[in-house]
Amino acid sequence: MRRPLALAGSAAAATAIGATVRRVARFRPERTPATPVDLDGLDAEAAAGRLADLIRIPTVSYRDRSEIDEAAFERFRARLVELYPAAHAALEREELGDGALLYRWRGATDEPPLVLMAHYDVVPVAGQDWSRDPFSGLIEDGVVHGRGAIDDKGTLVAILEAVEALATEGFTPRRDVYLSFGNDEEVAGVGAQLAVAAFTERGIRPWAVLDEGGAVVRGMFPGVPGQVAVVGLAEKGRLDVELTTSDPGGHASSPTRNGAPAQLARAILAIDAKPFPARLNDVVLGMVDAVGRHATGPLRGVFAHAGSLRPLLATVLSRAGREANALVRTTVAVTRLEGSSAGNVLATTARAHLNIRIALGETVESTVDRLRRVIDDPRVELRVLPGGADPSRVSRVDNEAYALVAAAANAAYPDAVVAPYLMVQASDSRHFSEICDSVYRFMPFDVTREELSALHAADERISIAALHRGAGFFRHLIRSV
């Protein structure tokens, strides 16, 4: 959905992207006073205890299924029934594949359903320096600690807290509400794809889908001091590439110049020296349009003319920090390096693993082509690994679904500016883009920069207050739709 210069693909795809560009560019949200969410009947301490209980079950995902503790995943699924009896009495539940959960809460009408998503698998903790046991579920000083506290058991618990409270009072939603809880999101598994397949087989096209993604943050946007609730409209593509170089090798006492590691190092340095260009895609332009009017100082004038200052704003954001930089360009991270298996033996093969997040308007194919041009060395073999995907489609902002999600965010956080956002990570929700044009990515938690940086890292945690308000957000949304 970017400028024509960055587009790739068919004319029909370009036309569809252009239509989305015009919708996002026209987006002018009005800040209206919101009635704060009703938190009565939602027990913050009890919710924290239930989240802690679920954190203690180590549902760690591995690409090698032989490493997975299947019994832990079974315990987790069983524990949900025990912790949320009213929800499980009111909703129909089915298991898909190896443990993805799909719940249906029948509504009073046959209108298209709302789908609320989360995943209950988590990433490993090996090699990380935690200050507390990552699976203790420790509650301390108003904070729940442990792997999955935010990503993504916190969201799952906030959803179920809302559903449990509503089911207990006998509430029936206007439209069907589905809960899609994945068991393999962290390894780009198939749980969400199975859910989409089930919807497709049953002829169901969701009204809206809400998954993890943006959050309520401060200091993310340059020049804007207050809270911003960023709702993801799309997510970047993903690609894993392996670079390999070879050499005859030999004893380390007689090294040769330009061996396999040196060839690989030059390729990596070439990529690092020539990053993908920074360009202001139109989802980020929509964010600038919504948030920039609340900036202070000279940036306010810059943001007021965002549409005509794209190159300048792309530069500003690319230099504003890691998160902002990732919004405006395809990023390449070297995550693994391999060489000789012995300290005194020259490497016959050297390898590097590149994890790449593809910007809107670019594709897997165009990304690989550029890497080959930048490396410009026939001795470096570039292999595309399975699991790559182009950027997702861009969801609508000109409809009731987005308006109600934004209204619920404003009800939960009345002082926050709600803005569209580009998710730089991948999520299960990209699969639902195949059957729904209103797929949003938003975790209704106010989190600090330090808390965000702990995702997939040591000392992941969430405040009890944020969890409580998140449950209020979901209850408000369900009541609204």
UniProtKB/TrEMBL annotation:
Species this chain originates from: Blastococcus goldschmidtiae
InterPro entries on file: Bact_exopeptidase_dim_dom, Pept_M20A, Peptidase_M20, Peptidase_M20_dimer
Protein name: M20/M25/M40 family metallo-hydrolase
Domain called Peptidase M20 dimerisation: residue spans: 234-377
This protein's UniProt keywords: Hydrolase, Metal-binding, Protease, Zinc
Entry keyword Magnesium: no
Domain of life: Bacteria
Pfam families in alphabetical order: M20_dimer (PF07687), Peptidase_M20 (PF01546)
Similarity section: Belongs to the peptidase M20A family.
Keyword Metal-binding: yes
